Here is the input.
Amino acid sequence: MMEDFNSETDSDYTSYWRDWFIQSRGNEYFCEIDEEYLTDRFNLTGLNTEVPYYQYALDLVTDVFDLDADDDLREQIEKSARHLYGLVHARYIVTTRGLAKMVEKYKKGDFGKCPRVMCEGHPLLPTGQHDIANMSTVRLYCSKCEDIYNPKSSRHASIDGAYFGASFTSMLFQVHPALLPEKTIRRYEPRIYGFRVHASAALARWQDRYRDDTKSRLRDAGIEAKYIGEEEEDDELEDEEDQVELAQVRERVRGDAASGRMEIGN
Here is the structure.
C-alpha cells in the first residue's frame, strides 16, 4: 500500500514509484530495474498488448506520470504499473546487469534458504514455471538438491512466476558457473533403534504392492492370472484346511465314542 512508502503528496509518490515498489513488503524478490533499460522502447516490445493503460503505467514506473485521475482510475493504473514492472523485470534479470544484481541478492540470502535438511541451509533463487502471466506463482529453486519449493510467506507466494521466468536460474548458472554447488549425495536413511532398515525389506514391500496392483488391473480387464509360486501357496493353504477339517472329524468321533461308552455303562 502507499502507506508503506513515506510519501505525503502525490508528487512525492510519482517521483519515487520504483523506490516505493522495491521497498514494499512482499516485493523483496525483485531487483531495481535501471532507468535506461525502462526507457528503451526495444526492451518493452510487445508489452503494450499485455498491460491495460500501458502508457500511463509506463509513465508511472518511469516517474513522469502527470495525470489528474480519480481514485478508481489511479488504482487501475497502479495495478497495471506493477504488472508492467514484473514483466519487464523478467526480461531485465537475464541481462548482464540484471544477473549481477540478482547474484548479489542470492549471496546475501534474500530469497531464503532450502527447507531440505540435507542441503544445510543452501540459498534459494526465485523462478517461474511458465513465461506467460497468470499461469503459476513464483517458486524457489535450490541448486544443491535441484528441486523447487513454495515460498514461506503468503505475500511472496502470490507473486506471478512470469515476473522471473522459467529461464532465469539456468541462465544465471551458465554465466556464473562458479556459483554451482556440489550436488548433495546424502539421503535420509530410515532406522529402527539405530539400525538401518535393510534395502531388501523395502524392495519386498514394493514388489508385493506392484504385484497386487498388476493383479487388480488384470482382474478389471477380465483376466485371471497367477504368479509363479502362488500355486504352491494355494496347495499349502488347502493342505492346512484339510488338516483342520480332519482334526475336527477326529474330535467328533472321539466325542461319539465317549457318548457310546457312557450309554453302555448305564
